[in-house]
Design brief:
The complex is a heterodimer of chains A (about 400) and B (about 180). With about 400 residues, chain A is an all-alpha fold. Chain A is about 75% helix and about 0% strand. Chain B has about 180 residues and is of the alpha+beta class. Chain B has five helices and four strands, in the order E-H-E-H-H-H-E-H-E. A four-stranded antiparallel β-sheet of chain B has the order 2-3-1-4. The chains are: A mainly alpha (about 400), B alpha+beta (about 180). The interface between A and B is small, with 9 and 12 residues.
Chain lengths: ~400, ~180
């Protein structure tokens, strides 16, 4: 079998992704009619979930370019394809911001702002027109840089040489600096502003590390799934071990960030900050709150520690799946309590039901559709990448 | 002393990692036993070619576990049992321990691993350096083959030729090179 076998979307996968989208639309419509607040909150969770995966994968790609990594060059098309979900994410997020933000964000209500000094103080920044401008700028920057990196990579396939590679490296550097700012602002806007009175400066970096962790995990997941279908014949234990190192190490950084934010707020013990954790620890949210740490850090940390497990593809698939659940729980705990808080349920709604599952499946469908479509549009392996040889022979190094 | 072979090792110097590794592979295949190799930086492939095993990671894990337990015991004894001071209204058995535990786990794990490594390799202050070739801390890769007593002159000649054949830039003899 040749290594540059082109990827074609299996008809089954296409049908499946469309089915998932239909399921998603159906549950979403039903949910909107029954409980709009809960449904929009779920929409935001899943929207942010897949944006994080796309951004994490793009960051993974940028890091590979900047460090001129050899081992991963064979898989570059996978993070590129995950990045190509961003335009879809932009449209989906725009729908949320136009129709759903009023259900979720307390600060969009004029009546609430009038009687609230803190919100008035924040209103020059936290108002709907500026919110939408920021959204457009953030997604504009992401999509244009994503398209640029993708084009350079495709050009390289035809032209070869080092010109396009050096350009990719340069724009990757631009990308990570842009990302540092835009992802932070985006996270502050879309998630932290749900609890508009609460703030944490570590919030954005924590979610960014989460995006990097789960983005890398999904890159590994897609690579292994493609390998199972007969693509990437040169994939070997050394690649798998490197993927598991990504999950292992970024998992530690994730826990570090999670704990740092918690510890600072715990130590300072200021009521306006501790209220966030108070809601989540001393209620039925407790299980998910601590479960989050187990799923995202403790399990991968202990499981991937042994080398024999770390380079086993089934173990990696399993870890990536656990991390996906972990990420969803992480976002659920971040978003749900603040956005579904009401007089009848002061701690927010904590019940995982059909709406949660259906909306997630819908977004999964869009993501699968976008990624598989993008993968089938170009060579699955960047045939003229300067480090391709090193990647193919990775077991020797 | 009469009768002993003084120069009891043959070494070949390589200046390219790939040439060095393929030489190692070919020598293992042809049955020439490699005694030791010296490289400027760690190459995992060397481990695989020579079939080496290490228990260092397990040792490091055990040290780190001991480190975390000892540090916690110490912290608990000092700030809960022996001299409890309430600072900022926090409990004496406090979450702030985690930072110290985190750092001390790494510290004890690393220091104890280093000590173990020194003991295994019989390294220590005052030990004279036995350097096979000056290039090994710079950019050269060295393969060492033991010249046993049973080896005839032709045999060692053959090893010399083989080393050159596989791309060595320099071949020489050196006594007292330790086993890997």
């Amino acid at each position: 079998m040749t290594i540059d076998k082109a990827y074609t979307v299996p008809p089954g996968l296409r049908v499946l992704s469309l089915l998932l989208i239909v399921t998603g639309i159906a549950t979403f419509t039903a949910g909107i009619l029954i409980d709009p607040q809960r449904t929009w909150a779920n929409y935001l969770i899943d929207s942010y979930f897949f944006i994080s995966l796309a951004i994490g994968a793009m960051f993974f790609l940028a890091i590979q370019y900047i460090t001129q990594s050899g081992w991963s060059s064979m898989f570059n098309r996978v993070p590129e394809a995950m990045g190509s979900y961003l335009p879809y994410a932009g449209v989906l997020m725009l729908i949320f911001i136009i129709f759903g933000s009023h259900s979720i964000y307390h600060w969009t209500h004029h009546s609430a702002v009038e009687s609230d000094v803190l919100l008035q103080h924040k209103s020059p920044y936290l108002n709907l027109p500026f919110f939408i401008i920021r959204f457009v700028v953030i997604f504009g920057a992401w999509i244009s840089l994503m398209v640029l990196l993708r084009r350079l990579s495709l050009k390289q396939d035809i032209a070869g040489g080092l010109t396009n590679f050096h350009k990719s490296e340069y724009y990757s550097k631009v990308f990570i600096f842009v990302l540092a700012l835009t992802f932070s602002l985006g996270t502050f806007d879309w998630i932290m502003s749900i609890d508009a009175h609460w703030f944490s400066t570590l919030f954005a970096i924590k979610n960014f590390i989460s995006a990097f962790l789960h983005g890398s995990a999904v890159v590994a997941l897609i690579v292994i799934l493609l390998y199972q279908q007969g693509y990437f014949p040169k994939l070997n234990k050394a690649h798998l071990h490197d993927f598991s190192k990504y999950m292992f190490i970024i998992g530690i950084i994730w826990a570090y960030m999670w704990f740092t934010q918690y510890l600072l707020i715990w130590y300072a013990n200021m009521p306006e900050e501790t209220v966030y954790y108070q809601t989540r620890i001393s209620s039925e949210w407790r299980v998910l709150f601590y479960g989050n740490v187990v799923l995202n850090w403790l399990f991968p940390f202990l499981f991937l520690m042994l080398n024999k497990i770390a380079d086993n593809k089934y173990a990696l698939l399993f870890t990536a799946a656990v991390l996906m659940v972990g990420m969803w729980v992480d976002l659920y705990v971040q978003i749900m309590p603040g956005s579904t808080m009401s007089d009848t349920s002061p701690m927010g709604l904590n019940s995982i039901g059909l709406v949660e599952i259906g909306t997630f499946l819908g977004f999964l469908g869009v993501f699968t559709f976008a990624v598989s479509r993008s993968l089938s549009k170009a060579n699955l392996i960047p045939v003229k990448h300067p480090y391709l040889e090193e990647s193919l022979m990775h077991e020797l190094h | 002393m009469v009768g002993t072979i003084k120069n009891n090792n043959i070494f070949g110097v390589f200046d390219d990692e790939d040439v060095f590794l393929s030489a190692m592979r070919s020598m293992e295949e042809t049955g020439i036993r490699i005694k030791n190799v010296f490289t400027p930086y760690p190459i995992p492939e060397v481990f695989r070619i020579m079939g080496l095993k290490t228990r260092m990671p397990y040792a490091a894990f055990i040290y780190a576990t001991i480190g975390v337990i000892l540090t916690y015991a110490f912290l608990y004894w000092t700030s809960v049992i022996d001299y409890p001071v309430i600072i900022g209204g926090k409990p004496t058995n406090t979450l702030s321990f985690v930072i110290i535990l985190f750092v001390m786990t790494i510290n004890i794990g690393i220091v104890m691993s280093l000590v173990t490594f020194f003991i295994i390799q019989k390294l220590g202050p005052g030990k004279s350096a036995r350097i096979v070739h000056k290039g090994i801390t710079d950019d050269k890769y060295v393969i060492v083959i033991e010249k046993t007593k049973e080896m005839s002159k032709e045999d060692s000649q053959r090893i010399n030729y083989t080393l050159f054949e596989y791309g060595a830039i320099e071949v020489g003899e050196k006594e007292h090179v330790e086993n890997i």
